[in-house]
Amino acid sequence: xxxxxxSLSAVAFAISLSACSDSAKSDKATSPADxxxxxxxxxxxxxxxxxxxxxYGGVPAxxxxxxxxxxxxxxxxxxxxxxxxxxxxxxxEPATFKNTIVEMEKAGSELSRVFRYWGIWSSNISSPxxxxxxxxxxxxxxxxxxxxxxxxxxxxxxxxxYESEELKSLTPEEQRVTWLTYNxxxxxxxxxxxxDKKRYAAINQELASLQTxxxxxxxxxxxxxxxxxxxxxxxxxxxxxxxxxxEAAKTRxxxxxxxxxxxxxxxxxxxxxxxxxxxxxxxxxxxxxRGDNADDKDNNELIKQILALRHERIKLLGYDNYAQWRxxxxxxxxxxxxxxxxxxxxxxAIARVEEEVKDMQAIADAExxxxxxxxxxxxxxxxxxxxxxxxxxxDEVKQYLQLDKLREAMFYVAGRLFNFEFSPVEDGKVPVxxxxxxxxxxNDKTSGDFIGLWYLDPFARxxxxxxxxxxxxxxxxxxxxxxxxxxxxxxxxxxxxxGEPTLISWDDAETYFHEFGHALHFLAADVAYPSSHxxxxxxxxxxxxxxxxxxxxxxxxxxxxVHYKTGEPIPQTLVQKIKNASTFNEGFKTTEYMAxxxxxxxxxxxxxxxxEPDSFERNELKxxxxxxxxxxxxxxxxxxxxxxSEGYASAYYGYMWAEVLTSDAAEAFAEAPGGxxxxxxxxxxxxxxxxxxxxxxxxxxxxxxxxxxxKVEALMRDRGFPLASDE
Length: 727
Description:
With 727 residues, the chain is mainly α. The chain has helices spanning 32-43, 70-89, 97-106, 109-123, 128-149, 152-162, 172-186, 194-224, 239-251, 264-273, 277-288, 300-317, 322-327, 335-366, 375-390, 394-398, 403-418, 506-523, 537-547, 554-560, 572-580, 586-603, 613-624, 640-643, 654-671, 679-690, 698-706, 712-718; strands spanning 227-229, 258-260, 420-424, 438-444, 450-459, 469-474, 485-493. The protein has 28 helices and seven strands. Strand 4 and strand 5 form a beta hairpin. The radius of gyration is 25 Å and the shape is globular. The protein starts with 31 loop residues before the first helix and ends in a 9-residue tail after the last helix.
């Protein structure tokens, strides 16, 4: 059992420290205001530290980024931040919300700006040179962060505010920010003795290095394995994919060939359409073997080390396992509750896989293929079943899914729900880090008030991590002068051939809307403090998952899904086929995701000494009855969500937890007179589910929106799975 006194709900990380601070000793106390003035003066020589300049309240100087500035900027930023924190910790006045919590919220602005640039190098334009700096600085940054959470004087002041009578007079958001700050310290070693604090900090440094290496190994395998095809190997592949693959090969100096890159956006359509089974197997094996090739980029040993260190660290805090510590302040509260949700859905998911495989095997047999369905056959024969059962051809649907038109559709939805208007910013007015990046100005349609900027970096390229994500370069706050939003969406779509639109799959279109949901969550924020933007992992995916539902609304379908050649709207007959097939292949999608989510929980509730990753994954999935035709969405050696950082460690289940909220909230719209554009429900959506961010406990916020807690039955209905009462 844990011996710490913390057992509170909601989120744990008070990012107000701006990635941190510390207890570096100074000869005399200096006010945070003086430190801030000095910081501005000292940072002018390094663009990465300097305040954002230019239009829109200032924007990042992405056009002036120089990797040579990064290390000195990090070092100076940390030193400035530590000085600010030391001034707060040594303030001779009694601790108050204003002189302690608010000053902590202000601290670290220079370092925060450096991390915005760091994020771009890390995710969007990585290089071997950056990775070398990253390897060197990650443990240094970790040590810096530990100094803050282990600063005894600072924690004493935070605790004093948290336990004071003053707390009762604060606003609800101020009370929550105080709790978030206190909980961050208490859950991260502030209550430990000196020896344990030292070991805790050392573990954090070791983990930082190992997790960075894990991520670098995945990226190396993604960049290092590219399959080049010749024209006689293209059977079955759609014309748009062939053209995009030719362009990808050309950019890699292989003109005349066709590049199948080792990313999901390339792998997935290839496995869906390629008629060459041997090539499908090769592409499948290459993709699912990332980090698992028994070479110097193999991640299995790193997994063991990461798990062991995480376990040792939480034992210092008195917890039984890592998941117990991680979930304590999440909506699930305990790993048992998270696993309980998985167990409710898992049997129906694998039963559906069995049905799907039976349908696929029947088609393969009828065609005389003389095969047994294997994982590299699943997408290929699922597409055949889709055509046979629903007369739905995914490539036919793709002709109506133009990236630019879908972006316009997202703007339309944002206009209807949030009253936002998006206007393109003239090229060159706002600096960008790559020519593919475009920027839009976001304003309130009624008042004309400026809300923020939205950056879009949509295409795959070398040096860019795989997947899709959203981020912010500046979040909305009002406590220290109004700050407008700088938000960004990033994807890895395979760019269409020159002069032609980029066409994407239905799944990719849903992902596009999903990530835009995160951006709207940033843009709609109406909170005072930076800490109110910290997220609860099993809640923050909810808003973005919910936005996917607007893709299938009539307003979007009728106005934005038009054929890329003829401009004709998508036929209603095809739309109906899409709706009829909405739960098609749900067994595969749910099982591949849940296998990863369950394994994540198992990794973090099992004694690490008993874990050998390769056999542990294989044996546990066998015990669970994992169908042999499906593989984990993220196999352990490339499970970056869990082992490249701690953001989703023990928390990958959160997508499913959020999906319960999503399905339940979607039914609220479906039941409303105005459907998905109902004004009254839409206003509650913005007020309680988007604008509030983490300034309110997520459970309370959802109840204010829905009038009750969410029900898992809505999820089961959504996926076409039988309810427990139906069995």
